[in-house]
Prior knowledge:
286 residues, alpha+beta, Phosphorylase Kinase, domain 1, Aminoglycoside 3'-phosphotransferase, Chain: A, domain 2, three-stranded antiparallel beta sheet
Amino acid sequence: MSIPASVVSSIEQKTGERVRSQQPVGGGSINAAARITCGDQPYFLKWNRADLADMFETEAKGLDLLREASSAFKIPEVAGSGVSDQHSWLLLEWLEPQTTRDRDFAGFGQHLAMMHKKTSESYGLDHNNYIGRLPQSNTFHDSWVDFFINERISPQLKNAVDSGKLSSGLHQNAERLFGRLSELLTNEPASILHGDLWSGNFLSTGNKIALIDPAVYYGNREIELAFTQLFGGFSGSFYNSYFETWPVESGFEQRASIYNLYPLLVHVNLFGGGYCARVESVLSRY
């Protein structure tokens, strides 16, 4: 897919350089993306409909928050964003990917644990953002359980039931689970989280791990660790290093299935299919 002419024109105005080349970049299911060269400078560009401009604006904010939270990770610089005719766009520093080695994963785990030690008094964020293309509410709560119920599980479950992807009877299972969360979940500080940390949202580049496509908020760090396990998990070196730097309480593997209700519900609402059965399986235990 070629870049819309209006987007090319806006980027050239922003950078002061002509777009000399463009090459499609795959791997995403939400936006169109390309590697472009302006003058001699390579960039990563993604674009979508004009009405999704807020999605790119909050992504840029999330990248800035991660950059402020940790100097150990490489966070791409934002070169610009905007709306051009019928399209919105986000222009980022190009990061050249490298093979991730086992020792990179070990550093990744340690650096993530250190980043998680940046905390807030409350769970949430001062603005809402997106996970994928779905709105993500970040209203502050003093209680992690209240935040997890009201800002994470309930909105996604309602969306899935209202759209017919899941049975309305699951509300009863969810309510039973909600009534037990205070005893099932641990009390952890409100850590800054990437928010969408799976294998597609990090890469090795220039001897650092880069974090991309964030859905940032302050939450219980265990939800982030659970998410890393959902689609195959990371290297064992990652987890060993993380837990050596900042251990979690016993029983984490049981809590992980509860936390992964959130990304599973997100995938139900985005893609449907087999994710529905996985949500039903978790909720049927309660």
